[in-house]
Fold each of these.
Amino acid sequence: MILAQQLPAEGSVGVIAFAVVGLYLLVLLGLGWIGYRRSRGGEEDYYLAGRGQGWVVTALTIMATFFSSFALMGAPGMVYRDGVVFALVSLNVPVAGYLIYILGRRIWAVGAARGYVTPADMICDYYDNQVLLRLLVVLVGIMFGVPYVMMQLKAGGQLAAALFHQYDNAFAVGAIVLSIITALYIMIGGMRSVAWTDALQCVLLCSGMLLAGVAMVVSMGGWSGFTSAISELPEGSLTVPGNTGFWQVPMLLTVCLFIPIGGIIQPAQWMRFYAARDVETLRRSALVFVIVLTGCFLLGIMMVGLGGQALFPLGETAEGNVAAHPTVGGPGDFDQVLIVVLREQLPALLGPTLGMALAAGMIVAIMAAAMSTADSNLHAVSALVTRDVYDRFIRPQAGDRERVWVGRLVIMAVTLISLLMVLQGSVEGSSLAGFMKMIVGLGLFAAAFAVQLLPLTVDILFLRKGTSAGATAGLIAGLIFAFSFSTLPGVIVGAMYGDLSAVAADAQPLAAQMLNVIGTAKSAVPIHASAWGLIPNVIVFALVSLTTAPVPADRRQAFADLTR
Amino acid sequence: MPPTPSPQRRTLSTALVIAVAVAMLMGVGPGIYLVNRPDSFLGIPLLYAWGLLWYAVHVVIVVTAYCCLWPANPQGDRVSEIGDQDQESA
């Protein structure tokens, strides 16, 4: 299919690519081993690296966790499909950067003082709601973590399918290898390994983003050639709401406001705040995050999508939908544009050896992007399930060693579940295929759930007016609405009842009728599912809090003292 | 108790919050309608140049906040004190 079309004909070039990728994977396992050797044992060390991470590692691991295959494959794919409008989505990154300091330093302060490990520890301790609210926070973590892991494994599969296109099972093998290596180094070394590998992967990821943009501009004859080609793109590619019409201004604004919030208060990032050595660490991390990451996005990888449109013009399906150029892949294969650019442009531009060496570096960058997010989320889900479910409800008497081993088993189980879903979704005609069509879609789906923790977080860290019942009811309402307005109910209804387009609306099953109502609401108010969930979440939280017992004054004061 | 923020810091803090709100509303909100046409600016699509402008604004905001508003180590000692007290009481 893609990059590897070069490989069989270019034996020595193939060796370079394999050597670079092989070396990279060995380095990751090596870092996992070093992390294990440096560990001091115990749950807190396994999940928070002893709360001693310095600012360089913290900044890099926060960035690597925030940006995933979304950055190197999803974002250029979305720009390729919709045009310049998606480049503006990079302005969500500064919001996340500000939150690293504004929320992160308060979360760090409370976590350090009271010994918290997971987000649920803080939330449930403040509201003194140790069962229902804890389980809901774990559910949020799983609803965020699993799709995010799936997204990364999918990217690994797509990359392998490109590299080894001559093999029928390349996608499956790629996803399996990526999942095994990732799970292995987390299981070996815990947070320390995850953070160290993230640091390396972040450097590769950022370099890859910038390099891809530079390569695209150079391959189009320099800046003037690039801008000249871009200026001739169709109007839909240069204006809002983009070629598909998806990126209406309300959608763009809600995505840019709420997705970074979800990306920063999701459990994996929350635990990185706990793991930081001090506030200075988070202060510097926030600065680096805003400047470097937004710049890599806007000045680097976005060029690939735009240039890709000029090089491989979009087509149209029989139904009138936007379709990728046949060179890029099937009608919906927008995410592969970067890999196609690597195949088509770099070897021709730089010669087969140097071009493929650079392409191999980019392949490693894509893998780094995918693995750095998959490892963080697997690690976080493991912490949530082990500490908040196993330790609390199943075996409270378990020792540290047992807990760490349960955490490792959870990592294996979540990896396996995510992998099975990715493999199922890759089967032509599968009910999951539509849901997993684009990497960005999976990322937005996941973030919609994490955002629902925002009202509780703001209440604990700033307001301290809410109640336990209000927090619980608000979170339930938010999750139900976020789920209902996501893409998954459509997939479930489709899997249950098949194609209902020929059935009269009033004769359709109740679930399909509800889906139609939601569809009408989404059309009338084109905002993201995260916002659809957040509105009832806040309203219910506020109303229930007005009529239920407040959090005791001494606890509110204790948190106020810590978060001021 | 931590020191009360000075009036200058409060003013700067408010100004930066407003600047972030303006940057978001202009960069990815209704402000887009001001430039939503397929023109170019210095050779690059107008909408893309608009994004670069607001990125520059965010850089100024975060550098200002880092240098003037976010204290280098605001409550490290205090947190450890409270943490010690908490552990003792437990």
Note: Residues 24 and 55 of chain B are 10 Å apart (CA to CA).
Amino acid sequence: MSELRFNPLLGEWLATATHRQDRTFLPPADYCPLCPTKGGSFPTEVPEPVYDIVAFENQFPSLRQNPEFPAIEPDGLYNVEPAIGVCEVVLYSPDHQTSLAAEPVEQIYKLVRVWRHRFEQLEKHAFVKYVFIFENKGEAVGVTLHHPHGQIYAYPFIPPVVAKELKQTSEYFEENGRCLLCDILEKERAFAKRIIAENELFTAYIPFFARYPYEVHITSKRHIQAITDFDGDEERALASILKQILGAFDRRFNRPFPYIMAIHQRPSNSGPYGDYHFHIEFYPPMRTAEKLKYLAGSETGAGMFINDTLPEAKAAELRDLVEPVEWKKK
Amino acid sequence: MADETNDNETEKMNVREITLSDGRYMVFYTFGDEDELIRAPTIKEQRNDV
């Protein structure tokens, strides 16, 4: 049973999804429900073995296209709505043992094209107001299935973090006549010490205002609002810089590096949001090889992050670990 | 089941959607010339072979 409940204190929607308590939790690799079903073996969620990438509706969604009606009535103070939306799982590979970082850049390029296609398909639903593409990687951020995968949530509202960014970028544009992300990018590139990697079309950096030690942002150099604005060169260039950043992450502590990857784009079915700017944010929980950055009292209770490191120092660590990307010749 | 092929200047993206037994959709993406892909039998086909 899912429903959307409104928090009048924060002005935010949240979802209750009690059925998700029963979802599969860290199964052994031999019983991974996201591996392709093999003949003579137990049936997994994926009935065919040959694919590059698969996207499908989550078996335990918090939002669904035909949701139940809430069990309670809204009363003006406590508002409730059906949990309408779409929750998709995107499998990066049939191979259980791989990860996005370990995949060749050509596979990441395929994923970028799949992201674009899913974005286009999901925003065709009139009820969808925001398509959020993300990945949770590693048990440190709550992953329950190790098969390499990301997720896409299509929300019936603009989620709070993006709404806040939209407000900031809009106000900045009204005051300055310029895009906030374009100006941040210009400032970071001029300063240079927080840059990690760069190609002709994207820049990766840990921003001046990073909340996490390894909070990498990847921003398009062109002022575009969504992955649907990409041309073919941008699809390849994003794949290249993702490959470089994910590789540097894994090399930092010589093991798979946990992170949350959030792709921030314009909302759907409203707008035009011309003053917004496509970018990706990574929130890795590691602050050292053995220590996690916890969201404790100040972060969770008050919303003020305390970063125990300087972005300039952490950017230098990652920059030294970036390797060139080689595409296979056709 | 819906079949769709999007041309791209480098590789074709082939999109094939199926409906699972519980009504959910699943979209398979393959890249390149589909004729060149070695497609393994589906579980349904495997069962029919038995």
Note: The two ends of chain A are 50 Å apart (CA to CA).
